[in-house]
């Protein structure tokens, strides 16, 4: 059974900022980043039960780009709540991850 995704506003902002950054680096790179995020989301919908990393939150590495998707799973509602999409070199200790 596939799960549904709920994208928190902070995660949406994370994705938009990364797209802008990559587009500034090279034309079309933001589009490739977004495609990698969408592929990761599709993988999570099928199998969301990756290792719990901290405080009941799970992380999923994206392919091709050094980002971690931070999320929780609501098994009763069959929903994946995407909390953040953070570059692996940044400090993930933002207020909404605590």
Task: Give an account of the 3D structure.
- By secondary structure, the protein is an alpha+beta fold.
- It has one domain (4-89): 2-Layer Sandwich (YaeB-like fold).
- 36% of the residues lie in helices and 30% in strands.
- It has 2 helices and 5 strands; from the N terminus they run E-H-H-E-E-E-E.
- A 5-stranded mixed sheet has the order 1-5-4-3-2.
- A hairpin with a 2-residue loop joins strand 2 and strand 3.
- Helix 1 packs antiparallel against helix 2.
- The longest helix is centred in the middle third of the chain and has 18 residues, at 29-46.
- The radius of gyration is 13 Å and the shape is globular.
- The model has no long low-confidence stretch (mean pLDDT 91).
